[in-house]
Amino acid sequence: MDHTFHSDTLHEVLSRLETDQEQGLSLQEGEKRLAEHGENRLEEAKQAGMLRRVLGQLKDPMILVLLAAAALSFFAGGGQDWLDAAIILLIVLFNTVISVSQEDNARKALEALRKLSAPKARVIRAGLERRLESSQLVPGDIILLEAGDYVPADGRVLWEAGLQADESAMTGESLPVHKRGGGGLPQDTPLAERKNMVIGGTVITGGRGRVVVTATGMDTEMGKIAGLLLRQTQGETPLQRKMGEVSKVLSLVCVGVCAVMFGVGMLQHRDILDMFLTAVALAVAAIPEGLPAIVTIVLAMGVGRMAKRNAIIKRLPAVETLGCASVICSDKTGTLTKNQMTVLEVWTPSPGLRGQALALGTLCGDAKEGPGGYVGDPTETAIAQMAAREGLEKAQLERDMPRQGEAPFDSVRKRMATCHSLPAGGTLIAVKGAPEAVLSRCTQVQGPQGPRPMTEADRRRILGVGSDLAAKALRVLAVAQRNQSGPPKSLEAQELERELIFVGLIGMMDPPRPEVRAAVERCAAAGVRPVMITGDHKDTAVAIARDLNLFRPGDKAIDGPGLDFLPQETLDRLLGEEPLLRRNYLQYLTGRIRFLSGRLRSVAQTGAEGKLARYLLTVPSGGPLRLSATDLAKRLGISRASLYRAFQALEDARLIRREGKSMYVLDPAGLEGVL
Question: Is residue 166 annotated as part of the catalytic site, yes or no?
Answer without folding.
Answer: no
